[in-house]
Design goal:
Elements: H1 2-11, H2 24-36, E1 39-40, H3 42-71, H4 79-91, H5 94-114, H6 119-123, H7 125-139, H8 158-167, H9 179-189, E2 191-192, H10 194-197, H11 202-206
Parallel strand pairs: 1-2
Helix pairs in contact: 1-2, 3-4, 3-5, 3-9, 5-7
Length: 207
């Protein structure tokens, strides 16, 4: 519990030069050592999973707004869209989804030009187009091959930045990984408490 609570409190704040340390790097090094030397419980793991999925879901929501504005299409904030984004945030990196969203937005614009319809139907085209493409990509085993850098308007949060430095070794960031990938890399770096590791292996934890 200590590792999760401490990291949640500290990583969500912008810290420049904490009192008692000559540089931020010195302080971060201490935090890194303390976090990695602590054990995490099943409750900590579930909370961390919710936090990471929340970050990725928020990114996709922002991308939807960007695409809607850029391509001048209305996208309904429906339960179908939210369910789709929940699934996508867990399975795919935001940079690959950004490319998919843009391609499907263009497809929607072309489709509406050739097939005029009522406003209610048009608001749901984007969700349907993206959903159908994901189903096709998964059924054929192609996955999402292309990526597109996220717009500068989507700023990296302090939590993402510090998490990436500590647990992703700066090789990746949240834009290049799915929530599942991020959790897997985190679980590789932390020690699970004995009371839970006896009953749960790492694969079941991510399920």
């Amino acid at each position: 519990g200590w590792a999760y609570r401490f990291m949640k409190t500290w990583l969500t704040q912008n810290i420049e030069h904490p009192h008692g340390f000559s540089t931020t790097t010195d302080f971060r090094s201490l935090i890194y050592q303390k976090i990695l030397s602590s054990t995490v419980s099943m409750s900590d793991i579930k909370k961390m999973k919710r936090m990471i999925q929340g970050v990725q879901f928020a990114k996709l929501n922002q991308l939807i707004s960007e695409v809607s504005s850029e391509y001048r299409i209305e996208i309904a904030d429906s339960s179908s869209l939210r369910a789709l984004l929940e699934y996508l945030s867990e399975k795919y990196p935001p940079n690959k989804l950004n490319c998919t969203f843009r391609i499907k937005a263009r497809d929607v614009v072309l489709y509406m030009h050739k097939n005029p319809s009522n406003k209610f139907a048009e608001k749901n085209y984007f969700t349907k187009f993206v959903s159908n493409y994901i189903e096709y990509a998964e059924a054929t085993g192609r996955g999402l091959e292309k990526s597109w850098s996220l717009p500068p308007t989507l700023e990296e949060s302090p939590f993402e930045s510090m998490f990436s430095q500590i647990f992703l070794s700066d090789e990746f960031n949240f834009n290049r990984l799915s929530a599942e990938d991020i959790m897997a890399k985190w679980l590789e770096k932390v020690e699970i408490s004995e009371e839970h590791s006896k009953l749960n292996n790492r694969d079941s934890i991510q399920g």
